[in-house]
Write the structure tokens for this entry.
Amino acid sequence: MGLEVVTSDDGGRMLVAIASQYKSGNTPEDVQLVVTDVVMPVMSGLDVLKGLSAAHWKTPVIVMTAFATDDVRDAVQKLGGVLLVKPVDIGVLETTVRDLISRAA
């Protein structure tokens, strides 16, 4: 796919790394996709999704979890994310990534 991947150790650093794109002269459109987990140190993946939503980012977000409760499903849907339940099939992940990036382009 030829994508550049940036990783973060926790949700707080992830949100800071995404927001720092502005300092580099980029726009939210320059970040093509965010993939996060619900359970992460410092800040959950749901909090990352909430932060992006509050900033009116339209960047697609995949949220993964092994704990797909109704509350998690509802939150991800309400905030416009795509939920993938662990264990995630790599083919499903790849197809979802391709679909979301092509739709956003």
Observations:
- The radius of gyration is 13 Å.
